[in-house]
């Protein structure tokens, strides 16, 4: 049986629209949390192409652009958009409780992206 | 925080420059157009210190838009920032110096060096490297290794200038009251100007100063050198400049602007009545904006050089940089400038007209090329290079009782601007710092 | 940028010879400074275009790759414009033309296809122009051309010419000839 961990990311009030924030997490790897027009998403923060923090990149519509080589991922699905990014980004379901945003992470060691 | 370039150590000035540049006695010598040592001093004392034109704002409107160009022999990237400002970086990776941007213009999110994958964002910050983990293990401080920024960037009426020298006076101070005259072309209508797309680059085997000087104050040559072009475009010879009742040569800090007040003498050579008509149509609004005097300059027989190597012709609306590529070689960058508010057909006629007249295929420019190359080539002769060359026309034509700003000389058939250009050049080469550069300006800072 | 072989029909051997011969003759006129005769080969609606070449990244190309119709150009002429250039060459006061420039124009890689309309031909070719002035000046300009030639009685007229050089920086100070 899978174990789902509910990981606190940040408060709703701390993430303005069209912003992305990096949440440090040694256990599961750093997480990027996004506010796209009032809808919240979470992905691994580490780019699948090279060592880079996606939270330092720019949001363009519903894509996140990595700041180092400008590869893009679709935020809701994590899908890599093409050269140089070929491996899809891990995404996490998001739950809002009151003012707090949580990511639901499967605690499977094989799936952890190391930060 | 930017990584500003290191300022250069100043080397000793050459002795003996007085032998080849003696403006008080109205003479120079060809050696200044051919000598390698003098050229090296220019790179250090002129091009590494003065304000140099790098771009027009209209070429880089959006964040990430860039052009590449050179300041002297240093290649630079000029790129629009998210903040709306403009940054100018050396086009050399701070790792091993590889060129980071190979295109002449474009739009980008940043630059990645082809060698070791150092990635820089639009602000010039180093944001990643290939095998970045290795750098982290070596306590590498990324913030110290971004692209190197030039010391100062500023713009005047859409014209972007930059300097390598943190001690250079402000652009405003550097341009002085010549800016008042520049407005006749660059600020005669609401909305200002823009460059036509693209840039024509060509190569000349001449010393950059000969071309810069030609534009600073040499309308004298037009009637003779360009007779054939005038006959081809106008069916008759060039307007007889000596017939103009009122004309001036004004200069300041080596910049020079010579002009008549005939409104359309320059634009007329493009042979497009629509352009003459356009200038006549806007003239009343220009008079309201800049005054009657400058409204007569918008396309008149005129030319200007901003020291050291940025020039333009109002009327033909051609804009150029004479890029130094050795003592007897230069690269010419040519653009066309138009009012943003001009109708599309008018802009198109200027694009084509400037190409017909002042470009490598231009009927006027073709005759200039030979003159400039051979003024340089004869200086190859050791004996020839040291002979006196006359630059003494109009020695006593300074006007002291005039409401006009800058140093004002009577008449545009005059070598006053040439002398002022070479004098400032001489002063820069002989000064170890800006403080040492003599202020030879005698005119007014502001128009009355 | 240029139409592929598959999209155009090549002309017969004989027609290829006639068109090539015409274009070689055009070049000999230029080598001989016979500018008026050269002008006579232009169609009255001629568009003679040599755009400026801009060094751009692949992801940032202009309208036609390295060039655009509304950007700076070397030639962007109609018949009147070409006539004015010829007028300057003929002036005794064209100081830079005396002594004369010695020209050698070469044409190669000629491909001739039927154009859209009867009597029209699309011609792809490459060229090299060598000029020498004075004792030791020598300039070489080379490039690709795309012409639209139209039948004119027994001969032809040049209706469109697109000249593309590979250089973003022209390696000489002027182009005092036609290409």
Summary of the model, kept short:
With 115 residues, chain A is an all-beta fold. Chain A has strands at residues 4-11, 19-23, 31-36, 39-44, 58-60, 63-65, 72-74, 91-92, 94-97, 100-106. Helix content of chain A is 0%, strand content 41%.
Mean pLDDT of chain B: 95
Integer-rounded radius of gyration of chain A: 13 Å
Strand tally of chain A, please?
Answer: 10
Query: What is the fold named in CATH at topology level of the largest domain in chain B?
Result: Naphthalene 1,2-dioxygenase Alpha Subunit, Chain A, domain 1
Oligomerization category of the chains in this entry: heterotrimer
Mean pLDDT of chain A: 91
CATH superfamily of the largest domain in chain B: Naphthalene 1,2-dioxygenase Alpha Subunit, Chain A, domain 1
What about the largest sheet of chain A?
4 strands, antiparallel
Provide the helix percentage of chain B.
25-40%
CATH class of chain A: Mainly Beta
CATH architecture descriptor name of the largest domain in chain B: Alpha-Beta Complex
Q: Please state the CA-atom Rg of chain B, rounded to the nearest Å.
A: 22 Å
What string gives the helices and strands of chain A in order?
EEEEEEEEEE
Strand order of the largest sheet of chain A: 2-3-4-8
What general outline of chain B do the C-alpha atoms trace?
Answer: globular
GO molecular function, one term (chain C): dioxygenase activity
InterPro entries (chain C): NTF2-like_dom_sf, Rng_hydr_dOase-bsu
Organism (chain C): Marinobacterium iners DSM 11526
Protein name (chain C): Ethylbenzene dioxygenase beta subunit
Explained architecture:
Chain C: GO terms for molecular function: dioxygenase activity. Chain C: InterPro entries: NTF2-like_dom_sf (IPR032710), Rng_hydr_dOase-bsu (IPR000391). Chain C: It comes from Marinobacterium iners DSM 11526. Chain C: Keywords: Aromatic hydrocarbons catabolism, Dioxygenase, Oxidoreductase. The complex is a heterotrimer of chains A (115), B (448) and C (179). Helices cover 0% and strands 41% of the residues of chain A. Chain A has 115 residues and is an all-beta fold. In chain A, strand 2 (19-23) and strand 3 (31-36) form a beta hairpin. With 448 residues, chain B is of the alpha+beta class. Helices cover 27% and strands 24% of the residues of chain B. Chain B contains 13 helices and 24 strands. Chain C has a domain at 42-164: Roll (Nuclear Transport Factor 2, Chain: A), CATH 3.10.450. Chain C has three helices and seven strands, in the order H-H-E-E-H-E-E-E-E-E. Classes of the chains: A mainly beta (115), B alpha+beta (448), C alpha+beta (179). Strand 16 of chain B pairs parallel with strand 7 (169-170) of chain C.
């Amino acid at each position: 049986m899978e174990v789902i961990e509910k990981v606190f990311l940040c408060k709703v009030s701390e993430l303005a629209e069209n912003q992305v924030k990096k949440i440090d997490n040694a256990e599961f790897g750093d997480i990027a949390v996004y506010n796209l027009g009032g809808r919240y998403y979470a992905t691994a923060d580490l780019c699948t192409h090279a060592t880079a923090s996606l939270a330092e990149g720019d949001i363009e519509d519903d894509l996140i652009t990595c700041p180092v080589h400008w590869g893009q991922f679709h935020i809701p699905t994590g899908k890599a958009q093409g050269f140089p990014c070929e491996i899809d980004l891990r995404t996490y379901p998001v739950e809002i409780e009151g003012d707090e945003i949580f990511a639901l992470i499967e605690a499977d060691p094989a799936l952890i992206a190391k930060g | 925080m930017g990584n500003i370039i290191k300022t250069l150590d100043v080397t000793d000035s050459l002795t003996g420059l007085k032998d080849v540049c003696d403006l008080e006695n109205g003479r120079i010598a060809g050696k200044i157009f051919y000598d390698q040592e003098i050229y090296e001093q220019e790179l250090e004392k002129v091009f590494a210190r003065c304000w140099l034109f790098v771009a027009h704002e209209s070429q880089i409107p959006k964040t990430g838009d860039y052009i590449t160009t050179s300041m002297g022999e240093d290649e630079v990237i000029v790129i629009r920032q998210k903040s709306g400002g403009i940054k100018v970086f050396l086009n050399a990776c701070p790792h091993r110096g590889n060129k980071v941007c190979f295109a002449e213009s474009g739009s980008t999110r940043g630059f990645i060096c082809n060698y070791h994958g150092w990635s820089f964002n639009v602000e010039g910050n180093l944001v990643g490297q290939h095998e970045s983990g290795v750098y982290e293990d070596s306590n590498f401080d990324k913030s110290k290794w971004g692209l190197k920024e030039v010391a100062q960037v500023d713009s005047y009426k859409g014209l972007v200038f930059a300097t390598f020298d943190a001690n250079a006076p402000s652009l405003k101070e550097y341009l002085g009251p010549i800016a008042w005259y520049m407005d006749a072309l660059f600020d005669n209508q609401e909305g200002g100007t823009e460059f036509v797309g693209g840039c024509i680059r060509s190569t000349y085997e001449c010393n950059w100063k000969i071309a810069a000087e030609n534009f600073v104050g040499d309308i004298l040559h037009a009637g003779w050198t360009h007779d054939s072009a005038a006959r081809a475009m106008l069916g008759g010879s060039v307007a007889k400049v000596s017939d103009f009742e009122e004309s001036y040569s004004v200069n300041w800090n080596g910049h020079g602007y010579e002009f008549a007040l005939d409104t359309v003498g320059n634009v007329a050579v493009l042979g497009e009545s629509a352009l003459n008509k356009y200038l006549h149509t806007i003239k009343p609004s220009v008079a309201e904006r800049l005054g009657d005097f400058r409204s007569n300059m918008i396309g008149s027989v005129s030319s200007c050089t901003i020291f050291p190597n940025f020039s333009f012709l109002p009327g033909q609306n051609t804009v150029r940089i004479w890029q130094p590529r050795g003592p007897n070689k230069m690269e010419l960058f040519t653009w066309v400038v138009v009012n943003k508010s001009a109708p599309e057909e008018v802009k198109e006629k200027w694009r084509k007209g400037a190409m017909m007249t002042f470009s490598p295929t231009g009927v006027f420019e073709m005759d200039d090329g030979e003159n400039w190359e051979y003024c340089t080539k004869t200086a190859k002769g050791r004996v020839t290079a040291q002979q006196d060359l006359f630059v003494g026309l109009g020695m006593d034509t300074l006007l002291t009782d005039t409401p006009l700003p800058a140093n004002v000389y009577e008449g545009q058939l005059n070598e006053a601007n040439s002398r002022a250009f070479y004098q400032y050049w001489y002063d820069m080469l002989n000064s170890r710092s800006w403080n040492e550069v003599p202020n030879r300006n005698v005119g007014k800072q502001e128009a009355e | 940028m240029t139409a592929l072989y598959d999209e155009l029909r090549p002309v017969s051997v004989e027609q290829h010879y006639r068109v090539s011969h015409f274009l070689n003759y055009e070049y000999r006129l230029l080598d001989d400074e016979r500018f008026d005769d050269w002008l006579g080969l232009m169609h009255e609606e001629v568009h003679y275009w040599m755009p400026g070449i801009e060094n751009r990244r692949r992801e940032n190309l202009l309208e036609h790759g390295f060039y655009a119709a509304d950007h700076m150009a070397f030639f962007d002429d109609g018949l009147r414009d070409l006539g004015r250039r010829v007028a300057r060459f003929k002036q005794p006061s064209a100081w830079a033309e005396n002594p004369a420039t010695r020209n050698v124009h070469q044409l190669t890689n000629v491909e001739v296809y039927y154009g859209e309309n009867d009597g029209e031909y699309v011609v792809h070719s490459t060229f090299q122009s060598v000029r020498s002035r004075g004792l030791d000046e020598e300039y070489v300009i080379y490039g690709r051309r795309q012409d639209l030639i139209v039948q004119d009685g027994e001969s032809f007229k040049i209706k469109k010419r697109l000249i593309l050089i590979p250089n973003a920086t022209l390696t000489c100070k002027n182009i005092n000839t036609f290409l």
